[in-house]
Amino acid sequence: MRAQPQSPEERRKSAIKAAARYGSMGLQLFGACLLGVFIGRWIDGRMLWEKPYGAVFLTLLFMLASLVSIFRQLMRES
To answer: What is the pTM of this model?
Structure first.
């Protein structure tokens, strides 16, 4: 079945929706990394660790969790 041709206004709205959707996914990943850094640095300070073990571990953990979430969102949309 062939899709109906879209008007320029509909195409513009569709492009804005796509940009907002994918832009929010990027912000989600960035926010998760930032949260991991701040919480990890706080833990490093509380544990008196000289090396940033907590910051590195939590940043990677939060990044992985965010990537899994983004992947699930993309699979749901397909």
So the answer is: 0.80
